[in-house]
Each structure stands twice: as C-alpha cells, then as structure tokens.
Amino acid sequence: MKHRQYWLANLRLVGILLSIWFIVSFGCGILFVDVLNQIQIGGFKLGFWFAQQGSIVVFVVLIFVYAVLANRLDRTHDVDEEE
Q1: Nearest to residue 53, comparing CAs of 35, 23, 32, 29?
Q2: How many CB atoms lie within 10 A of CB 58?
Q3: Do 30 and 48 form a contact (C-beta atoms < 8 A)?
Q4: What does each of the 83 residues of the chain score in pLDDT, given as a tens digit?
Q5: CA distance 77 to 6
C-alpha cells in the first residue's frame, strides 16, 4: 500500500509539471500568441520568444524542479537511496 501511495504521488507530480509545460508551450506559443506579441523583449515579440525558446527553457527548469521534488517525495515515503 505504501508503494502505491508513493507511485500515485509521483504520477500527480509528473502530471502537474507536464500540465505546466503544456500550458507554456501550447498556450503561450500558440493560443495566446497574439496577446503576448503586444509585449516586446529585446526587440522580439514575447509570443515568438515563447514559441521558439520559452517552452524549451521552461522544460529544462521543470526537469530541475522535478529532481528536487522527487527527491523530497522519496525521503517522505522512505524510498530514497542511502549513501
């Protein structure tokens, strides 16, 4: 039962992080591009930036966030690797 709770918590974490990535990549890069293009950063429209680089940057940040939160989840459910 304990492993099932750990697995469900892990799936919930992955689902939340993938939802954030989907919102940033699809929402900001496609759906809200017209609104975001009204803002310019460094001479580039913000919608263009999200479509080209923003979703990749957010994905890399989410990888690090997942690593930190997964380690915390491992310690909480006592399945972490002991050194």
Answers
A1: 29
A2: 19
A3: no
A4: 778 999 999 999 999 999 999 998 888 888 888 888 899 888 888 888 877 888 889 999 999 999 999 999 999 888 877 65
A5: 6
Query: Position of tokens 């892990």?
Result: 10
Q: Which residues pair with 40 in a beta bridge?
A: 45
Tokens 């939160």 correspond to 69
Instruction: Tell me which amino acid residue 68 is.
Output: V
**Residues forming a β-bridge with 44:** 41
Cβ neighbours, 10 Å, residue 28: 20
* Phi, then psi, of 15 in degrees rounded to 5: -60, -40
Instruction: Answer for the pair 33, 51: CB distance below 8 angstroms, yes or no.
Output: yes
